[in-house]
Design brief:
Elements: H1 2-43, H2 45-48, H3 55-86, H4 89-108, H5 113-116, H6 119-147, H7 154-162, H8 164-179, H9 184-189, H10 194-197, H11 199-211, H12 217-224, H13 232-239, H14 241-272, H15 277-305, H16 307-321, H17 324-329, H18 334-362, H19 369-385, H20 388-399, H21 403-422
Helix pairs in contact: 1-3, 1-4, 1-6, 1-7, 1-8, 1-11, 1-14, 3-4, 3-6, 3-19, 3-20, 4-6, 4-11, 6-7, 6-19, 7-15, 7-18, 8-15, 13-14, 14-15, 14-18, 14-19, 14-20, 14-21, 15-16, 15-18, 16-18, 16-21, 20-21
């Protein structure tokens, strides 16, 4: 009997490890697909798809198409979350991989404005919308899949999935860094397409890995008990609305910071400060690499001290570093710029994003967990994530200085702090069923 129990425990650990690895890999690929658009919007889309505009206005137009992906995310979250709670987590994770992969690959094939005129930005917007639909159900499905396998170490195992984000940032920014070493004419003609086209190979790998995933025991349990809901997304709004609003509140600062630190800083450094593209791209890559370690650490700490403690710390640091971040950027010194991004990413985004993989799904019961996490995360992303580079660029143009952007960061952080104080502590409770 002891031997059988030992074998069973070993098999459970093996299954959990495989689920974590497959989810993290798939999430990294999907983040790569989504984030290369942001880097391209900051560097090249204003020239190729909006060339008739003033350069800064063209950048705003490019960021507007960037935001379209975030408008699509709640729609994708509602649709994919609905079927994830009805048909299973695994099925929809495979579907999101296909949607993201095709959308990204086709962006790399698009003709430019000089070739087909206004149809170029129109097609760009459509494909960005497809990307947003795919990502809308990707992250939530991956973290729900993991924490429903993870037992009492949900914070730590969930945070391993979050490593997919900095990996996607490092890969997307790094490959654009390589492409920008090409002569300008080559970069504008074909170099920018390479990051989009090679994603089809990565998606193929992720697709095969995800096909081998096992469905979660929590979902199997509600299927066996015939407790699968007919309209889980509507049930979130009807019965779980408080958890839904809290999920939005605790996320707005983290998701806003993610894109301000990885996208807007590129625009600020290259246009406002006149720095070479490689300086800020390298700094973003180094900050993302450090997050490989700090995200799992934050998840582990949240298992020990609670989700709320980490979230409150991240919110307070976000307020404290909102102005110093730009002080360091304005020095134009590569080492200080890199230090600023590493420290800010570690003490703000990592402390919020690491525990989020467990905290967000823990707010919802099993029957609506996929839908609740999807809607909460993606509505917040639509409100602050996709529009944050656009809002920051507009604030910079209005104020003529970074101070307005710093105030914006402080405002987002205060919302997250308030929501965290109102949320229940979930770290030591069993998952709700």
């Amino acid at each position: 009997m002891t031997t059988a129990m030992g074998v069973s425990a070993a098999a459970e650990r093996s299954t959990t490890a495989h689920v974590v690895w497959a989810s993290a890999l798939g999430t990294a690929i999907e983040w790569y697909d989504f984030l290369i658009y942001g880097t391209a919007a900051a560097l090249v889309f204003n020239k190729l798809f909006f060339p008739s505009f003033d350069p800064f206005v063209g950048t705003l137009a490019a960021f507007s198409t960037y935001a379209v992906g975030f408008v699509a995310r709640p729609i994708g979250g509602a649709i994919i979350g609905h079927y994830g709670d009805r048909l299973g987590r695994k099925t929809m994770l495979v579907a999101t991989m296909i949607a993201m992969g095709l959308g990204t690959f086709l962006i790399g094939c698009l003709p430019t404005y000089d070739q087909i005129g206004v149809w170029a930005p129109i097609l760009l917007v459509i494909l960005r919308f497809v990307q947003g639909i795919g990502l809308g159900g990707e992250w939530s499905g991956a973290v729900v899949m993991v924490i429903e396998h993870a037992g009492n170490r949900r914070g730590f195992y969930g945070s391993l999935v979050q490593v997919g984000f900095p990996l996607g940032v490092a890969a997307s920014t790094g490959i654009f860094g390589l492409m920008t070493k090409l002569p300008e004419a080559d970069f504008l003609s074909w170099g920018w397409r390479v990051p989009f086209l090679i994603s089809i190979l990565l998606v193929g790998v992720g697709f095969i890995v995800r096909l081998k995933l096992a469905e979660t025991p929590h979902f199997k349990e509600i299927v066996e008990r015939k407790e699968v809901l007919a309209q889980p997304a509507l049930e979130v709004l009807r019965r779980d609305w408080r958890s839904f609003l809290l999920a939005i509140g605790i996320t707005v600062s983290e998701v806003g910071l993610a894109y301000l630190l990885t996208v807007f800083t590129v625009v600020y450094a290259t246009t406002k400060l006149g720095l070479p593209r490689q300086v800020i791209l390298d700094a973003v890559v180094y900050a993302a690499i450090v997050e490989f370690a700090t995200l799992p650490l934050a998840g582990w700490l949240s298992d020990m001290f609670g989700r709320k403690a980490l979230y409150l710390a991240g919110g307070v640091f976000s307020v404290a570093l909102a102005f110093p971040l730009f002080w360091f950027l304005d020095t134009r010194e590569p080492a200080l710029i890199t230090l600023a991004l590493v420290v800010t990413m570690t003490l703000t985004h990592a402390l919020l994003f690491g525990p989020k993989a467990a905290f967000m799904p823990e707010l919802f019961r099993t029957q609506v967990r996929y839908s609740g996490a999807s809607l909460g995360a993606n509505v917040a992303a639509a409100l602050s994530g996709g529009f944050s580079p656009l809002i920051a660029a507009a604030l910079l143009a209005w104020a003529g200085s970074y101070w307005a952007v710093s105030v914006y960061i402080v405002a987002l952080s205060i919302v997250t702090i308030i929501a965290t104080l109102m949320a229940p502590e979930t770290a030591r409770d069993s998952l709700r069923s």
